Amino acid sequence: MGFRCGIVGLPNVGKSTLFNALTNAAQADTGNYPFCTVEPNVGRVPVPDRELETLARIAKSPRITPTVLEVVDIAGLVRGASHGEGLGNQFLGQIREVDAILHLVRCFEDDQVSHVEGPIDPIRDIELVETELMLADLESLERQLEGVIKRARGGDKEAKAVQPVIEAALEALRDGKPVRGVSVSAEQRPLLNMLHLLTAKPVLYVCNVDEANARDGNALSQAVARRGAEEGAETVVVSAAIEAEIASLGDTEEKRAFLDDLGLEDAGLERVIHAGHRLLGLIRFLTAGPKEARAWTIRKGASAREAAGNIHTDMARGFICAETITFDDYVASGGEAGAKTAGKMRQEGADYVIAEDDVILFRFNV
């Protein structure tokens, strides 16, 4: 289980540069990392995972399989997209299919790259994109509500259940607020998700800055960060130009040296990917053996039985226990055998809640 995100933004903000950097980085990585282009504008990118590499080295696993991020380079939005302007219908249709939105905003000045809205103003750009998405949701819900009301009056139970959800979403939209801020009960959440609303998608703001501001950002990216904090959204600063350069480099050591020269602790793409995981409430656990070291993504709060089923349904059906070691204990003990000898391996039952970085061996019988 990875996650599918769409890179959204106005034209000329760096979406294709970022997408190409992601996909080129995947192609340039070692053969241990799976990559494929599903469509011309869709790529699957391995999630950088230093812990997994350490685990593989200790376990002497010949193959490393990280979890993946599926990235969609969505057509640039223009004013009026909700009414079909530009590639509006294609743009909106692609967003409905993603789990999260990476909203790339331009936070750099460049006289050689024009901006469709004139002066550089990332907050204006965010509001323009958000407005088009809200207008599209508003039109969709108003169209649906009339039919739902008729069915509810006729005694349709599903219509009666979904009507208040639609009405709550409409109220927010008419107040100029995205649907992701609407409070619904746990029972209503699946009904809200079934509406496939654009502004219900979680958003990560990605500020594209020039190379000089890649480490600390600038006044424009700080304005976006403040906007994100008000919404409860995360913000990540990247330089798409730098990410493209990193992707073109050869081995890991060369990339590390390049980042060190720029004073960067890690690549912007790593921060984007990990922030995306947090955005969707995902964590990952690890497995390692003589054939493969692998990372598995699951929702936060998942049980050991659910995690086993993520690997294979037979493991969940015949679950016996989850032999669990924290990553730090695994490394400190020199591997599974050392951790077991040191008493650092625990036998957990089916209801155990998986923690980030757990190294697990599932015991099952079918």
What does this structure look like?
By secondary structure, this protein is an alpha/beta fold. It is built from 14 helices and 13 strands. The protein has helices at 15-28, 50-59, 88-96, 122-153, 157-174, 189-194, 219-231, 240-248, 252-262, 268-279, 304-311, 313-317, 327-332, 336-341, and strands spanning 3-8, 36-39, 42-46, 63-65, 68-73, 100-106, 203-208, 235-238, 282-288, 292-299, 319-326, 346-348, 358-364. A seven-stranded mixed sheet has the order 2-3-5-1-6-7-8, with helices on both faces. Strands 4-10-9 form a three-stranded mixed sheet, with helices on both faces. Residues 26-38 have low confidence and may be disordered.
Distance between the termini: 24 Å
Roughly how much helix do the residues carry, as a percent range? Answer: 40-55%
Strand content: 15-25%
> H/E order of the elements?
EHEEHEEHEHHHEHEHHHEEHHEHHEE
Ranges where pLDDT stays below 50 over 5 or more residues in a row are 26-38
Averaging pLDDT over every residue, what do you get?
84
Radius of gyration, taken over Cα atoms and rounded to an integer in Å: 23 Å
Molecular shape: flat
> Describe the biggest sheet?
7 strands, mixed
Q: What's the β-strand tally?
A: 13
Biggest sheet: strands side by side, in what order?
2-3-5-1-6-7-8
Count of DSSP H/I helices: 14
Secondary-structure content class: alpha/beta
Sum up the structure in keywords.
alpha/beta; seven-stranded mixed β-sheet; 366 residues; three-stranded mixed β-sheet
Helix/strand layout:
Layout: E1 3-8, H1 15-28, E2 36-39, E3 42-46, H2 50-59, E4 63-65, E5 68-73, H3 88-96, E6 100-106, H4 122-153, H5 157-174, H6 189-194, E7 203-208, H7 219-231, E8 235-238, H8 240-248, H9 252-262, H10 268-279, E9 282-288, E10 292-299, H11 304-311, H12 313-317, E11 319-326, H13 327-332, H14 336-341, E12 346-348, E13 358-364
Helix pairs in contact: 1-8, 4-5
